[in-house]
Design the sequence.
């Protein structure tokens, strides 16, 4: 197989060893080649423009711009871009966000080599690839769990252990308004207190540490 | 202005009888003629002064009461009286001004009232606006209005301070007569009226207003003032004799002129007479509403003139002094007499005492009305009163016999009971004596009574005798009589005999003593009166147990608790209007029998009672009881009772019911601390004893006044105070109360007046509602604060747990998860590789080995971090030394650690990241550069820490680094970590020259940040 017909792959991950490992797996496949590697989202966008890879393996957790944002930006200029999320996260919100941003596949790190290659081939062939755990997480996602931007901000501050008053002063809103938001958040997350909210928010990927 | 600009002073010479001025008006005073001294002496009937036993006719119909210095007057000399609208009597004395409510004196004098410049008050006048004008002897004039005194002296135009008279004329002008000048009040200044124009200077002693509205001024001259017209009248005789002391116009228009030489009267016709009957210098004149003219003299007592008769009232009987200075009739019709030795009140009364000089010497007294209307009065001596005149009487043949009682039987025979000589029957000329010698049970007679059959019952000191037609029959204790000393006998309409004794009641039925509910109940009581009323009900009066009523076998008991005036009942009489007249030690009370009946039937209406007091004379009066008849009916509805001063006659006039007296709260005492006439009282917390004193303002006798009171908020019901004038309360609970006191006259108990006083009892502050509320608020606040603190602690703990949880999660993610996933990727790659490619596989395995080692170290660090949290802060040096030691042990390559500058602690995250970077740097050096030695130096500079890791190994080409980046992932990781700390990372290396890594981190690192915050930090650094 000539270099030109090989599936060109861009690897985006902030951990060098992961990149080495992934690149090594890809390089074992004769019809695939790693065209570029990136440790940040910004660099990834540039490298995408440069190499126009067939498949981009995108970690969600990156220093600076997040993986989801990188997916959005790449898709904005290259709507045909085939991007597979490769991450340690499996919260429904992460998956949802990533898929909404335009990811075609979603892989959890620690997958077998075969799964990775299968996923690349599937997505390159125009299909989606979602492993069963991901599908289950998506199915479990409640319909009305979308939080507003402000609620998300409030949730971030709740997770950091701030009181309503501190949240209020941090966001420049009244404490009463914070309470309203908190009530909304608790109701959205279907939990009864802040600790549960934090746990649920982390588990579901609404918030990342 | 009343300045007599056009003085129209015309003198009338009474002596000449010449009319110089035609007087207008109905009465022609112009014809006043000074009477020749003896001119009318023959015309006026010379009224013989009462010399008989009935002396003192002038004060008949009045009860008398005397007050002197020992009774509370500041001094004995009483100069004038006035009554203000609130009912108080004001008394001018030589020792100050006195307010009197009928019982208590309140003295205003120089000591307690600075406005009173002199204690000697001479004249008083109440003006129509309610002011009291006070004229002093030397101290000028004072007005008292609304509780405030205002004095007028020389500065106010009053040039003479001896104010003898004050008068308000029809226009409301106040006239002031002094020893030197007549003044009137203009605005707030006094203007001199006399000694101007044609008006000569005057000494004024009396000012009156006649019914034409003219002001009469008497003193050194006699003038009338009418508008601007001034007339002078001359009295004949020597000037010095006609010093006028007092003036009065009586209802018939006669003008009376009291002078130093006597009394003159000027008839409306104008004729002037000297009143010869009145002797001495006349000081006081007054006409009471019954028409009596009262005349007070210096040294000759007083005279009462009525029905053309001048009755002298002299010291011996009626007055404390023969110098009588003034009279006054108050609105209650009491006559007040001011004398040089106190004051006397004459109150109208239906009570008349026929004085018997020796009555007081007896220990008994009876009064019996004979069929001809004459009265037999027995005490020390026997008197017969006929036509109002008492004469000592001795029955023929009974000289030396002390008579106890007289009784006339239906046959006309007179029975005379004696004190030790038995009983005498006098029939015409025949007198028969019954005594113990001829069968009488005892010679000391208590009562003589005729039975229906004409037989006579005699009650004695030792049993009863029945004088039948043929024989005397005696009943004594041995015969079943309850007690020997007999007090009263009664034959009821069934013919049964009731015998009241000092030791119970006996009931004789068909000559046999029987027991019933009354004899049972009254056993051993002193029963002094028995009465059968017109309805056949029996009434028993006891000496100290009140009144009993026996009707249909039912006995009812009445005492002062039911409204009786006294529990001692001497005699029960009944008039034609079903009224009971009951005598007792306090006097005679009149009450309606139907009210007593109603009470017996269960009605709760209070008894109306009229008490005829016995403060008749200066001496105390005592009623007699226990020897019959101790009272009898006189003519009409008048009643007679024996007293120690002589028989007393009560003949009530049907009048309007007595008005209820005004009651005022005088004084409140809290634990002995007194407050006068407060409007409201506030008691401090812990106050124990509250006493509220109240009194009526009532100038007549207070005998019949009763009170009841109630403390709203404390008392459920009105408390009957009787005549008591103090209400006591102890240990009131805190709160607001209103004290009410009601006063009424027993004669008209339905008409009450009330006074009230709000009383607030403060609680201890710790028992007050606000304090308790405060406590509740405080405790709630405290509870809330505790709750908040607890919540905050939980929050803090939550935060700590959350941070720790976050840290662990991040550590696991950053170390274990990352490491494992990378190694997993490597191993997956190796699986798919051609095993023969040794270089390639060995490289990957190397990466994997390194990664596993790194991950293990990182995981260990994470745990170590957990366990030794806080130590890291201060001990970056020690940690590095430990890493160096460990490294040297494993590789044998020495690592030298140096530190300079003042060591400062780093925050946990920075220290951790820094250690990771340094460890990586040392590892890299040892692993790749094959050095002989590695140097790690820490330089603590102000604001930052610089760490340099240098080796003397092979080094590498720095320019190749970028291309080889993927291969030198360790460098990349170090850079990233340094950036996370907010620090800088520099690498210097060249082939053969070793490698140097310089890391600089700020002293105050980015802190413990969430990932979100860190992302923001990164974003910022990227923009730079």
Sequence:
């Amino acid at each position: 197989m000539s270099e030109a017909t090989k599936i060109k792959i861009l690897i985006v991950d902030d951990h060098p060893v992961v990149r080495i490992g992934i690149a090594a797996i890809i390089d074992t496949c004769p019809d695939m080649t790693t065209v570029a590697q990136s440790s940040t989202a910004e660099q990834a966008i540039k490298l995408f423009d440069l190499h126009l890879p067939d498949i981009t393996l995108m970690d969600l957790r990156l220093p600076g711009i997040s993986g989801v944002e990188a997916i959005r930006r790449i898709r904005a200029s290259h709507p045909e871009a085939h991007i597979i999320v490769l991450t340690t996260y499996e919260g429904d919100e992460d998956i949802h966000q990533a898929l909404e941003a335009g990811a075609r596949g979603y892989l959890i790190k620690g997958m077998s080599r075969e799964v990775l290659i299968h996923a690349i081939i599937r997505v390159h062939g125009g299909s989606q690839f979602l492993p069963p755990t991901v599908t289950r997480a998506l199915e479990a996602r409640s319909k009305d769990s979308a939080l507003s931007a402000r609620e998300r901000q409030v949730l971030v501050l709740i997770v950091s252990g701030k009181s309503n008053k501190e949240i209020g002063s941090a966001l420049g809103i009244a404490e009463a308004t914070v309470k309203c938001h908190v009530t909304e958040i608790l109701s959205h997350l279907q939990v009864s207190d802040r600790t549960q909210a934090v746990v649920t928010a982390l588990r579901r990927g609404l918030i990342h540490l | 202005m009343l300045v007599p600009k056009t003085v129209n002073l015309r003198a009338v010479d009474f002596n000449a009888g010449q009319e110089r001025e035609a007087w207008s008006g109905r009465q022609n005073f112009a014809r006043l003629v000074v009477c020749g001294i003896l001119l009318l002496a023959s015309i006026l009937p010379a009224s013989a002064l009462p010399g008989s036993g009935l002396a003192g006719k002038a004060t008949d119909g009045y009860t008398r009461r005397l007050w002197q210095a020992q009774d509370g007057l500041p001094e004995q000399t009483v100069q004038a009286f006035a009554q203000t609208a609130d009912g108080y009597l004001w008394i001018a004395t030589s020792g100050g001004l006195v307010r009197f409510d009928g019982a208590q004196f309140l003295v205003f004098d120089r000591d307690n009232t600075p406005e009173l410049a002199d204690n000697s008050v001479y004249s008083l006048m109440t003006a129509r606006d309610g002011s009291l004008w006070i004229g002093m002897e030397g101290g000028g004039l004072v007005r008292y209005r609304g509780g405030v005194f205002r004095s007028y002296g020389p500065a106010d135009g009053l040039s003479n301070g001896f104010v003898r008279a004050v008068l308000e004329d029809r226009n409301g002008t106040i006239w002031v007569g002094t020893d030197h000048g007549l003044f009137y009040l203009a605005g707030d200044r006094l203007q001199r009226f006399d000694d101007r124009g044609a008006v000569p200077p005057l000494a004024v002693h009396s000012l009156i207003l006649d019914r034409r509205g003219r002001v009469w001024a008497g003193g050194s001259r006699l003038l009338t003032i009418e508008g601007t017209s001034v007339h002078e009248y001359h009295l004949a005789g020597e000037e010095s004799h006609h010093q006028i002391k007092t003036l009065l116009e009586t209802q018939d228009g006669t003008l009376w002129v009291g002078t130093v030489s006597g009394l003159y009267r000027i008839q409306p016709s104008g004729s002037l007479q000297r009143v010869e009957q009145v002797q001495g210098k006349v000081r006081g004149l007054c006409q009471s509403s019954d028409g009596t003219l009262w005349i007070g003299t210096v040294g000759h007592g007083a005279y009462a003139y009525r029905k053309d008769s001048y009755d002298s009232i002299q010291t011996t009987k009626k007055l404390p002094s023969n110098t009588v200075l003034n009279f006054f009739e108050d609105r209650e019709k009491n006559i007040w007499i001011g004398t040089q030795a106190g004051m006397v009140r004459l109150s109208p009364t239906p009570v008349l005492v026929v004085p018997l000089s020796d009555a007081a010497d007896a220990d008994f007294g009876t009064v019996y009305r004979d069929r001809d209307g004459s009265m037999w009065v027995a005490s020390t001596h026997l008197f017969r009163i006929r036509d109002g005149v008492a004469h000592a009487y001795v029955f023929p043949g009974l000289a030396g016999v002390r008579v106890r009682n007289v009784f006339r039987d239906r046959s006309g025979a007179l029975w005379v009971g004696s004190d030790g000589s038995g009983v005498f029957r006098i029939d015409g000329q025949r007198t028969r004596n019954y005594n113990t010698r001829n069968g009488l049970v005892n010679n000391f007679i208590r009562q003589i009574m005729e039975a229906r059959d004409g037989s006579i019952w005699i009650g004695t000191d030792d049993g009863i005798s029945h004088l039948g037609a043929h024989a005397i029959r005696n009943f004594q204790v041995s015969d079943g009589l309850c007690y020997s000393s007999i007090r009263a006998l009664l034959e009821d309409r069934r013919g049964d005999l009731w015998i009241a004794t000092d030791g119970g009641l006996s009931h004789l039925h068909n000559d046999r003593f029987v027991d019933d509910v009354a004899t049972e109940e009254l056993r051993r009581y002193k029963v002094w009166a028995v009465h059968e009323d017109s309805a056949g009900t029996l009434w028993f009066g006891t000496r100290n147990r009140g009144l009993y009523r026996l009707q249909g076998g039912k006995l009812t008991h009445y005492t002062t608790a039911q409204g009786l005036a006294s529990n001692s009942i001497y005699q029960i009489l009944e008039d034609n209007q079903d009224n009971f007249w009951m005598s007792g030690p306090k006097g005679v009370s009149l009450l309606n029998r139907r009210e007593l009946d109603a009470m017996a039937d269960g009605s709760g209406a209070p008894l109306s009672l009229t008490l005829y007091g016995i403060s008749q004379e200066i001496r105390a009066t005592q009623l007699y009881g226990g020897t019959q008849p101790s009272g009898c009916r006189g003519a009409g509805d008048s009643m007679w009772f024996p007293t120690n001063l002589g028989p007393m006659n009560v003949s009530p006039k049907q009048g309007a019911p007595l008005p209820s007296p005004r009651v005022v709260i005088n004084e409140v005492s809290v634990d002995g601390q007194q407050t006068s006439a407060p409007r409201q009282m506030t008691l401090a917390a812990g106050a124990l004893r509250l006493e509220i004193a109240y009194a009526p303002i009532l100038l007549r006798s207070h005998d019949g006044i009763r009170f009841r009171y109630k403390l709203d908020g404390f008392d459920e019901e009105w408390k009957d105070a009787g005549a008591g004038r103090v209400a006591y309360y102890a240990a009131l609970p805190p709160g607001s109360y209103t004290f009410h006191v009601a006063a009424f006259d027993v004669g008209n108990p339905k008409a009450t007046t009330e006074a009230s006083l709000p009383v607030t009892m403060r609680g201890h502050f710790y028992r007050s509602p606000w304090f308790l509320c405060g406590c509740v608020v405080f405790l709630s606040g405290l509870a809330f604060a505790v709750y908040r603190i607890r919540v905050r602690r939980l929050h803090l703990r939550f935060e700590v747990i959350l941070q720790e949880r976050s840290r662990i999660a991040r550590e696991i993610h950053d170390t274990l998860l990352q490491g494992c996933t990378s190694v997993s990727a490597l191993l997956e790659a190796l699986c798919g590789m051609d095993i023969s490619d040794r270089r390639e596989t060995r490289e990957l395995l190397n990466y994997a080995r390194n990664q596993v080692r790194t991950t293990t170290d990182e995981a260990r660090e994470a745990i170590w971090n957990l366990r030794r949290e806080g130590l890291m802060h201060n001990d970056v040096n020690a940690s590095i030394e430990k890493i160096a030691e460990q490294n040297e042990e494993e590789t044998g390559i020495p690592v030298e650690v140096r530190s300079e500058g003042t060591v400062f602690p780093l925050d946990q995250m920075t220290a951790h990241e820094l250690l990771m970077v340094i460890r990586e740097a040392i590892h890299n050096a040892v692993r790749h550069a094959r050095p002989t030695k590695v140097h790690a130096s820490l330089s603590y500079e102000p604001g930052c820490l610089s760490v340099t890791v240098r080796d003397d190994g092979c080094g590498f080409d720095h320019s190749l680094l970028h291309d080889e980046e993927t291969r030198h992932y360790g460098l990349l990781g170090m850079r990233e970590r340094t950036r996370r700390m907010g620090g800088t990372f520099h690498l210097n290396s060249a082939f053969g020259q070793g490698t140097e890594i310089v890391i600089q981190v700020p002293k105050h690192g980015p802190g413990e940040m969430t990932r979100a915050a860190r992302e923001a930090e990164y974003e910022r650094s990227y923009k730079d």
About this structure: Chain B has a mean pLDDT of 81.
